[in-house]
Amino acid sequence: MTYTVDPARIEAFESFARAWMDLVTRHGGIHHGYFLPSEGKSDEALALFTFPSLAAYEVYRQRFGVDPEFIAADRIRDESGCVLRYERTFMRPLLPAEAPELHD
């Protein structure tokens, strides 16, 4: 995911990111981290995570707007205004040989 963030609210974005890293991990995915502005664009952040399959990702997505922990994580974003816009792109990873397996 690519986020346009409010640079003045980066601490709130970090709280939002930590909550989602935990949720992805606890619900079957592997979170590869958030990549926050450092040099160059000061308002762009990236998140990379994978699930074993599209079906597993869809099970995870069913919790959005329903699961209290997912709602609480989104509340951080909504109440702080730290995310101005985001885009979701689906890709398949090509990982180094030593990376954990991601398929059934």
UniProtKB/TrEMBL annotation:
Residues 2-94 form the NIPSNAP domain. Pfam families: NIPSNAP. It comes from the Bacteria. InterPro entries: Dimeric_a/b-barrel, NIPSNAP. This is NIPSNAP family protein.
